[in-house]
């Protein structure tokens, strides 16, 4: 091989090495840029999630605390109680029946009877046609005798029929009130059910549920903030204490 040819071969090999090195450097910079972009995106997403969680007061919440017109809702406990618990329920809902038996009595004993909290109820009648019938009957009882409402509330859940059957009929609802010896006018109760006297009020309740993004029953709000789990008494207690401290700081 001549000297000039050897030099050309060496030069060509050197150029290829330089090009290969340049390509490796380019790929390295691209990988670094890509990783950096991913890390920035992760940091931004995490920051937004933390901010959203902080603003809602509970993960998965819908924003600032819900605002309720407490004066227009059935209430168990003192109106001036610092903690206001709002339950969204459907009288045909089996889970609501479990809440009424397993959680509500403990809330009554620990918080409501001691004046620390009051419990309010919002109808969310969505399971079947007789969900609305039961709610209309309960509203009639409430407007006749606000204290009798809670006796009727307990009786409806205690005598709850099959979720898939239409059991909350006019006759059943009136007879239940009679069996419980509620201090109300039973003929008026029947008339209110037939005439759907409180249909507008029931529509208002369902609208409140929709506005606050309530999609299941029972749902419990504590001073406007949705409870993380309506069946976890320990979590509810912690959230009530947190709400109490926040109320005291205001």
CATH secondary-structure class of the largest domain:
Alpha Beta
* Rg, Cα atoms, Å: 31 Å
Strand pairing plus helix content: what structural class? alpha+beta
Q: How widely separated are the two ends? A: 94 Å
- The oligomeric status of these chains comes to single chain
- In N-to-C order, the SSE pattern is HEEHHEHHHHHEEH
Summarize the SSE layout with pairings:
Layout: H1 3-56, E1 75-76, E2 83-89, H2 94-102, H3 104-112, E3 117-123, H4 129-144, H5 146-158, H6 170-179, H7 186-195, H8 199-211, E4 219-222, E5 225-226, H9 233-249
Parallel strand pairs: 2-3
Antiparallel strand pairs: 1-3, 2-4, 4-5
Helix pairs in contact: 4-5, 4-7, 6-7
Please explain how this structure is put together.
This protein has two domains: 1-56; 70-249, Glutaredoxin, CATH 3.40.30.10. It contains nine helices and five strands. Strands 1-3-2-4-5 form a five-stranded mixed beta sheet, sandwiched between helices. With 250 residues, the protein is an alpha+beta fold. The chain has helices at 3-56, 94-102, 104-112, 129-144, 146-158, 170-179, 186-195, 199-211, 233-249; strands at 75-76, 83-89, 117-123, 219-222, 225-226. Residues 30-62 have low confidence and may be disordered. Helix 4 (129-144) runs antiparallel to helix 5 (146-158) and helix 6 (170-179) packs antiparallel against helix 7. The longest helix is centred in the first third of the chain and has 54 residues, at 3-56. It is 60% helix and 9% strand. The protein starts with a helix and ends with a helix. Keywords: Disulfide bond, Membrane, Oxidoreductase, Redox-active center, Signal, Transmembrane, Transmembrane helix. The chain crosses the membrane at residues 32-52. InterPro entries: Thioredoxin-like_fold (IPR012336), Thioredoxin-like_sf (IPR036249). One of its GO terms (molecular function) is oxidoreductase activity. It comes from Paenibacillus durus.
